[in-house]
Design brief:
Order of helices and strands: HHEEEHHHEEEEEEEEEHEEHEEHE
Distance between the termini: 8 Å
Number of domains: 4
Shape: rod-shaped
Largest sheet: 6 strands, mixed
Strand content: 25-35%
Structural class: alpha+beta
Number of strands: 17
Length: 392
């Protein structure tokens, strides 16, 4: 059974549950303040009651929608989740510190009995409450867009992207990961900020996931949410360059002449040589055989411009697939550096691709789009939605 109504809104009982929990927490805060400081401490009771009300509503609402949020969330590689709702970041320290400060001030006001001390305490409570709750509004309204990004990169190498925000916020790339960056300034309007991301694996990245956080206006508590930013163009992340390794032996018995075939000579005749296993029978030079007494074959000049055909078949395990693409990346890069033409065969989401490799950039894009053969789950390379499941 789905935890939300068919039209996507929250059921009334969930909202009522959160409100009742918050009111109960606020009442407990008022009773606790009056019991500790006496019935005349109206300011302290109001402060603790308000803070308890806000914390109670937030906790009740968070606990009630956690399961629904997980079902409708987007999963990131590594078991993390995209959290699009606004949430406080490391809230226990600022909230607990504010409560302790107000309790201490309430004790001073109770001991002195001065009206100006209580007035200052009320002002301090308003500032702390505003600094705790107010940042949720700009965090909820924050927007992020990408204006510039590269089209090619390599796993493990940092890449620079230009993002534009509508306010002074802190951006922390979550996928691909990167260090935090701040969109600062006092001028109203879009604020460009450059962020650096480092992809940890190959693949085609269409969406950048960033955490947008703000603590305005007083910097007491940070509120954050995750934003999925569409890139203006796909980012092809090539695999790392690994060890080439020995090429695998290819069995070719299409003509049924030999289990291990060698290329047939198609160039100009160069001479004769003794027969070797795998030579075609039509290359036997009978006059030289009769003269030498052993089987002789024609030897021809081999063509040096024949392309090297490499067929890439990725396993279903992401780690093994990454290692295989790294090995192919190193092998084909070496062939291209020596001027040898290469024809690469890969499985892509659109189907099988078998065509020449122009350069290293084309090689990286081909391996970034490579997936296991049809019927095998591809390795995780980008955020993916998690389908809903019935609760039993």
């Amino acid at each position: 059974m789905s935890p939300s109504t068919p039209d996507g809104r929250q059921p009334i009982w969930r909202t009522a549950n959160a409100a009742f929990t918050g009111l109960f927490a606020g009442a407990c805060g008022v009773v606790l303040a009056r019991a500790l400081f006496g019935p005349e401490m109206v300011v302290a009771g109001a402060i603790i009651g308000t803070v308890s009300l806000v914390v109670g509503v937030a906790l009740s609402w968070s606990f009630s929608v956690t399961r629904r949020r997980r079902r409708t969330s987007v999963a990131l590689p590594g078991g993390q989740w995209v959290r699009r709702r606004v949430r406080p970041v490391a809230w226990f320290g600022p909230v607990a510190g504010s409560v302790v400060a107000m309790l201490a001030w309430a004790g001073v006001a109770h001991s002195s009995g001065s009206g100006w001390v209580q007035a200052v305490g009320a002002l301090l409570a308003a500032v702390l409450l505003t600094g705790i709750v107010a940042p949720a509004v700009p965090a909820r309204r924050a927007t992020v867009a990408c204006t510039e990004c590269p089209s090619d990169g390599q796993a493990g190498w940092p890449l620079a992207m230009t993002l534009v925000t509508n306010g002074p916020v802190r951006l922390r790339p979550r996928y691909p990961v990167g260090p935090p960056a701040r969109a600062e300034g006092t001028v109203r309007g879009p604020r460009p900020v450059e962020v650096t991301v480092t992809p940890d694996r190959r693949g085609v990245v269409d969406t950048l996931v960033v955490e947008v956080a703000t603590s305005a206006p007083f910097g007491i508590l940070w509120w954050a949410k995750d934003v999925m930013v569409e890139l203006p163009r796909p980012l092809h992340v090539a695999p790392r360059t690994g060890e080439p390794g020995p090429p695998p032996t290819v069995t070719d018995d299409a003509l049924g002449e030999a289990p291990l075939r060698v290329p047939a000579g198609l160039g100009e005749p160069r001479g004769v040589r003794p027969y070797q296993s795998g030579d075609p029978r039509r290359s036997v030079h009978w006059p030289a055989t009769a003269h030498a007494g052993v089987l002789m074959v024609r030897e021809t000049e081999r063509q040096r411009d024949d392309p090297i055909v490499i067929d890439v078949v990725l396993p279903d395990d992401p780690a093994r697939a990454e290692a295989e693409t790294e090995r192919v990346m190193a092998a084909v890069t070496g062939f291209l550096a020596r001027g040898r033409p290469v024809v690469l065969g890969t499985d892509e989401r659109e189907g099988r691709a078998l065509r020449p490799v122009r350069d290293r950039i084309d090689l990286g894009r081909r391996l970034a789009r490579a997936v296991p053969p049809p019927g095998v789950a591809p390795p995780t390379g980008s955020p993916r939605p998690v389908p809903k499941r019935e609760r039993r």
